Amino acid sequence: RDLQWTGILIEGDPKSIPKILSKGRKSYVVPHCLATKNITMKVSYGSYFNLGRIVDESPGRKDKKVVDVMCLPLFAILKALKVPQVDYFSLDVEGNELDVLKTIPWDEVNILALSVEFSHIGESHTTGSKSELESFMESKGYRVASK
């Protein structure tokens, strides 16, 4: 806010949206999660405050901390908002980072720098491994600057 940055905040946990909006950032707020496939998806989403994540790629899971949420492909959001270039992209989806990255048509969007959380990659609810993530990003022309 102090630096006059603008951006897009994408949050799948409906309980976190009021707090995000209260910050008064100059950003679009998208109250959906990021899709792990190149389609709009309705999923069961664990509403665990700062650790919210997709717990089942099918909706309707019965658990008091799980809600059905619509997930959108990142590129669909960028296209809708007419954003051809992203200066900085921070991705933290509690384990599905590689799946989200694989949905991006890298030849159609220019992402200058990104940071990707990988501490949950390889856990039972996730796909891929840290080395797969690094190999994938290197295949797209990126390099690891810090671990």
Automatic annotation (TrEMBL):
SUPFAM superfamilies found in the cross-reference section: S-adenosyl-L-methionine-dependent methyltransferases
InterPro entries noted in UniProt: EGF_Rcpt_Signaling_Reg, FkbM_mtfrase, SAM-dependent_MTases_sf
GO cellular component: endoplasmic reticulum membrane; Golgi apparatus; late endosome membrane; plasma membrane
Alphabetical GO biological process terms: endoplasmic reticulum to Golgi vesicle-mediated transport; endosomal transport
Highest rank taxon of the organism: Eukaryota
Methyltransferase FkbM domain mapped to chain residues: 60-144
Protein name per Swiss-Prot or TrEMBL: Methyltransferase FkbM domain-containing protein
Organism field: Tigriopus californicus (Marine copepod)
Lineage: Eukaryota, Metazoa, Ecdysozoa, Arthropoda, Crustacea
